[in-house]
Amino acid sequence: MFKYVNDISELAQQIIDRYNSEFNLAIDCTLGNGHDCDFLRKKFKKVIAFDVQSEAIERYRGFNYDNVECICDSHENLQNYISENIDVAMFNLGYLPGGDKSITTKHESSIKALESATSLLNEGGLITLAIYHGHDEGKIEKEEILRYLKDLDSKKFGVMLHTFHNRSKTAPLLIVIEKKLSKR
């Protein structure tokens, strides 16, 4: 068992826990089975979670957490629901583990959500993207997101890619985006 070279979702959580400084508002852009939302709700005053699958939303709503708002809509529409600045956004891109594999995130909607999330992100805030690309749409989504992020303003955002070097070419990868703090 590895301590660091392990599950990328856990790594994303560890990075947020260690490097994020404000814990007011977080967005779980892909609720799915709720693992990231569970992490976020314990750390943040408020969490807003999105998913297009009503079963995922209803299951998580059933827990009745006071600080979690679940929205059954695509993450591409997050700007319709959120107007205040955010401290963190987490994405798990691909399909719901154990769910219908024909329902996947799409690069167009994910990039639109990234554009909104970066515009709402507080200085010092983080966005994590766990990209599962072992399927056709996932391969396209990975390439398009990497292309989009290559042109993200490097004076405002740092972008880091974590990938497995000695595993399958389709092993998931983690991207971390950090918004630069202005000089104070």
The low-pLDDT segments are none
Mind describing the biggest β-sheet? Answer: 7 strands, mixed
Rg from alpha-carbon coordinates: 15 Å
General form: globular
Could you say what the CATH topology is called? Rossmann fold
Provide the β-strand percentage band. Answer: 25-35%
Architecture in CATH?
3-Layer(aba) Sandwich
Count of β-strands: 7
Structural class determined from secondary elements: alpha/beta
Assembly state (oligomeric)? single chain
CATH homologous superfamily heading:
Vaccinia Virus protein VP39
First-to-last CA distance: 42 Å
H/E order of the elements?
A: HEHEHEEHEHEE
- What is the CATH class name? Alpha Beta
Spatial sequence of strands, sheet with the most strands:
3-2-1-4-5-7-6
| Residue-averaged pLDDT | 93
| Domains (count) | 1
What would your notes on this structure say?
Strand 4, helix 4 and strand 5 form a beta-alpha-beta unit. The longest helix is centred in the C-terminal third of the chain and has 15 residues, at 136-150. This protein is of the alpha/beta class. The chain is built from 5 helices and 7 strands, in the order αβαβαββαβαββ. The chain has a single domain (8-179), classed as Vaccinia Virus protein VP39 (Rossmann fold, 3-Layer(aba) Sandwich). The N and C termini lie far apart (42 Å). Helix 4 runs parallel beside helix 5 (136-150). The radius of gyration is 15 Å and the shape is globular. The model has no long low-confidence stretch (mean pLDDT 93). A 7-stranded mixed sheet has the order 3-2-1-4-5-7-6, with helices on both faces.
